[in-house]
């Protein structure tokens, strides 16, 4: 069966995509951006952490699990499940990881420093989205009594009094990672930490739910603040990872633009209210089941969106909105307020025939032009999946270089596609 996707050369990591409709049923996996945070939180306890609905197939998750093992944790993966234990090892506070780094090393540093008083981790990696600073992570650890410094390719922290001290953390922007790191660091700090202007989004609520099950005392006060009463120790936990809203949105958009018909199971309705409102207003036809969404193909209309904090449209979603807009007759406009100028992918889509230009911070797409397959490059994860979706609508073959980027955030893509055609 032609899955529409073939990894033609594993060594050069090129993915070949051809035109096809997506028809059938697909199950949304556990969320990358939740699973990674929960893995960092597993460092806060010496007791077992068991995660269900766990996306073992994701490249970033595999990197993270290996990092945990390097630190002294034992990892037992099974089907959509992982168990992390400490087995009497002394956990190392120096993550001497020689491979590709991930953004989550910042949270690993927060977890090591709050539990062991110190940590040393590779500088953060992750998608290159223009300037991606980590000054807020440094600021919050310093506010909690740590000294933080860089040493070559490593970021190091040490609690000056041996244990982090709770404090007020005022975030100037609703940073996802800085909110998560404050929660992680605050959970074992001495006293009460208040995070003002936090980013409250589904992945963060999932992290808080798990930590509270472990014995943490964290309360969310709307978008105003999150209060964390530090505790002496945290225990083991069994927890289920939330569904990946990015993956769910990908299949919904894929169904429309390939004129397909997909039932998306495990659809996180609550987490996608705003993006789905925009898409429904732009021609997406949906039918809601109990925990699934059926999306039928049809004519997409142009979109006008800006990205921002939850419940708004996540910056990660905008490359998919661009592909949606490219299929519609008319002009679509995108502005990314989270990562201004995150439009590198548009240049790659232009190679396939997408008619677009950038005007200051605005991306304008003149939709309705047919796309043609050619050789393009996945500049980051979401750029990669956007090219992949565009490839499903293009005449001829699309060859995506650096396709490993897609595997960072989409597991079992080939297998899922087999069920969709
Ligand atoms: C693993 C994970 O969950 N990654 C997500 C997380 O990234 P991440 O947590 O890195 O993103 P942030 O929410 O922190 O970034 C928001 C904005 O704050 C700025 N900033 C951030 C930290 C800092 O120390 N200093 C600073 O200036 C960033 O440059 C950006 O402009 O949220 C982003 C959206 O918000 C998503 O695109 C990423 O997929
Ligand atoms: C930007 C992303 O991830 P990371 O923060 O891990 O680079 C993403 O998931 O799109």
What does this structure look like?
There is one protein chain. With 421 residues, the protein is α+β, with helices and mostly antiparallel strands. The chain has two domains: 5-29 and 243-418, Enolpyruvate transferase domain (UDP-n-acetylglucosamine1-carboxyvinyl-transferase, Chain, Alpha-beta prism); 32-240, Alpha-beta prism (UDP-n-acetylglucosamine1-carboxyvinyl-transferase, Chain). The chain is 30% helix and 26% strand. It has 13 helices and 23 strands. A four-stranded mixed sheet has the order 1-2-23-22, with helices on one face. Strands 3-15-17-16 form a four-stranded mixed sheet, covered by helices on one side. A four-stranded mixed sheet has the order 5-6-4-14, covered by helices on one side. Helix 4 packs parallel to helix 5 and helix 7 (245-257) packs parallel to helix 9. It is globular. The termini are close together. 51% of the residues are buried. Mean pLDDT is 95; it is low at 1-11. Bound molecules: uridine-diphosphate-N-acetylglucosamine (UD1) and phosphoenolpyruvate (PEP). Uridine-diphosphate-N-acetylglucosamine (UD1) binds at residues 33, 36, 103, 131-137, 173, 175-178, 199, 314-316, 338-339. Pathway: Cell wall biogenesis; peptidoglycan biosynthesis. Its EC number is 2.5.1.7. It comes from Compostibacter hankyongensis.
Q: Care to count the β-strands?
A: 23
- The total tally of domains equals 2
Q: Give the CATH superfamily of the largest domain.
A: Enolpyruvate transferase domain
Uncertain stretches = 1-11
Largest sheet: 4 strands, mixed
CATH fold topology of the largest domain? UDP-n-acetylglucosamine1-carboxyvinyl-transferase, Chain
- Helix/strand class: alpha+beta
